[in-house]
Amino acid sequence: AWAFATARVEAPQLFGAIAHLPPSGLSKFNPQEVAMLAWAFATARVEAPRLFDAIAIATQPRIGEFAPQGLANTAWAFATAGADAPRLLAAIADAVRSRLGEFTAQGLSNTAWALACLDWTEDPRVFVALADACVDRVTTMNDEGLSQLHLVALHFRLEWPDESFPLSPQCDETLREAYERTGRSPSKLRSDVKATLDRLGWRHVCDHVTAEGLSLDMAQPATKRAVEAGGSSRFLREVSSTRYVENGPTRFKARLLERLGWDVVQVPFSEWTALTSDVEKENYLGVLLDSSRSSDAETTTTTTRGFSDVSSD
After folding, report:
1. CB pairs under 8 A, 24+ apart, for 291-298?
2. 169 vs 92, 172, 180, 214, 279, CA distance in Å?
3. Between β-strands 46-47 and 225-230, what pairing exists: parallel, antiparallel or unpaired?
4. pLDDT tens digits for range 265-304
């Protein structure tokens, strides 16, 4: 699996067979092999919840046997696959805190990002320790690691607004700039979605960057509404079908945007490519935008009623 994932070669039958391994089937794997297996499935963008559950069960009692890179790679794989495993994450967090000096800067940022991506909120001190260990190494990190830390900082400040995150304003700016450099990826899909929005008269700004540094494909900043064109890199393919589901990073970004008050419509590539005419595309987007507006109205009404009830008591 690792070889096929590294070579970017699809092997659905192989991944399908491995995906059904029970926890007992992993007992003969050493820690490095377990980490590589999880990494392979995440890198190949194959959704395999049963396998990740088995890996979590088999790995947790042996977490002390993992090398720092294995811990970081396992955390990264679970986050990328969107496979939540609270007990395993807690075990990894404890192990990392006690061995910070053994990790590379990339390993630290991978682990911090993974915990934030999976919405792990057990202990803010873990994020503080990981970020603090990265501060002196920021100048040695690549854009991927810096981008991860940018999202970690945003997650931390949204979850614990009264806590202090150990990054200076200058460091914050460095992280944000790296994220903005890696977040822009023009594509035929996005151009096509933009053209359809233009025909519908939905005025927007392309490549909008929010005040917090999150990038949006097409946005209406004044109303905080946006459309994201979801290319294949934002999805996982279900191991037993041709269906696609959002991966961990896509869900992470969507969660952050929702917390910041944005209403975002996702346009999955698998649905868009099935549309064969401009009329179909216009109808499709029109329904999505109307549904989003209706959802907003319902939320507003519910909130208003809630306040009204409180006021009348």
Report:
1. 292/225, 292/263, 292/265, 295/263, 296/263
2. 29, 5, 16, 17, 48
3. unpaired
4. 999 999 999 999 999 999 999 999 998 765 554 443 333 2
Cβ(226)–Cβ(208) under 8 Å? yes
* Cα dist from 252 to 28, 151, 155, whole Å: 33, 9, 9
Q: Which residues of 46-61 are buried (b: 16+ CB within 10 A; e: fewer)?
A: bbbbebbbbbbbbbee
Say how many C-beta atoms besides its own lie within 10 A of residue 301's C-beta. Answer: 10
pTM: 0.86
> How do beta strands 235-238 and 244-246 pair?
antiparallel
* Contacts for 185 with CB less than 8 Å, ≥ 6 apart: 231, 233
237 or 304, which is more confident? 237
How far apart are alpha carbons 157 and 287 in whole angstroms? 35
C-alpha 129/C-alpha 123 separation (Å) is 11
Q: How far apart are CA 284 and CA 278, in angstroms?
A: 10
CA distance 222 to 227: 14
Count of CB atoms situated within 10 Å of the CB of 132: 15
The tokens describing 9, both together, are 């070669």
